[in-house]
Fold this sequence. Notes:
This protein is mostly helical. It contains 4 helices and no strands.
Amino acid sequence: MESFVIKMLGFAAATCTTLAYAPQFIKVWKTRSTEDISLWMFLLMVLGLVLWLVYGLLSGDAPLVAANAITIVLAGGILYMKLKYS
């Protein structure tokens, strides 16, 4: 498969998995309620995202870097609000 097609596939997957966090982030932001959100899940998720970001940076994988950098902001924001509002 061509390199361009592979990169576009990566960016499409990255867009889907990154945008999946947006509705939860917006809901928590609006309601200030994090009661039903697992603290441990988001701690592990943000740690995993940071590790994926480092991996992506070291391997030069642009879709991986972009997706994880943006997802860290969204998941990290949810984690921050979980700690703040709980």
